[in-house]
């Protein structure tokens, strides 16, 4: 059983990612999307008001 566990662990690739960018550009949103395979939906009104500021 231990041999199977080691075999499964060795077949998984390990990647390190560095997120760089200004505040409020979506670094955390992208990180959460990759970690949990989930996208947060944002209303169009929020996007339009963000662009006007």
> What class do helices, strands and sheet pairing give?
mainly alpha
The outline comes out as: elongated
- Number of helices, where a helix is a run of at least 4 consecutive DSSP H or I residues: 3
Fraction of residues in H or I helices: 40-55%
Largest sheet: none
- For the CA atoms, what is the radius of gyration? 18 Å
Order of helices and strands: HHH
Average pLDDT score:
74
In percent, how much strand structure appears in the residues? under 5%
Distance between the termini: 58 Å
DSSP strand count:
0
- Poorly predicted spans: none
Describe this structure in words.
- This protein is mainly α.
- The protein has helices at residues 2-11, 27-36, 44-52.
- The longest helix is centred in the first third of the chain and has 10 residues, at 2-11.
- The model has no long low-confidence stretch (mean pLDDT 74).
Quick summary:
The protein is an all-alpha fold and 53 residues long. 55% of the residues lie in helices and 0% in strands.
Topology:
Layout lengths: L1 H10 L15 H10 L7 H9 L1
List the defining traits of the structure above.
GTPase activity; 3 helices; 0% strand; mainly alpha; 53 residues; Small monomeric GTPase; single chain
């Amino acid at each position: 059983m231990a041999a199977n566990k080691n075999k499964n662990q060795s077949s998984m690739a390990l990647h390190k990612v560095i997120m760089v960018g200004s505040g409020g550009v979506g670094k955390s949103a992208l990180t959460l999307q990759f970690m949990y395979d989930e996208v947060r939906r944002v209303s169009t009104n929020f996007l339009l008001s963000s662009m006007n500021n």
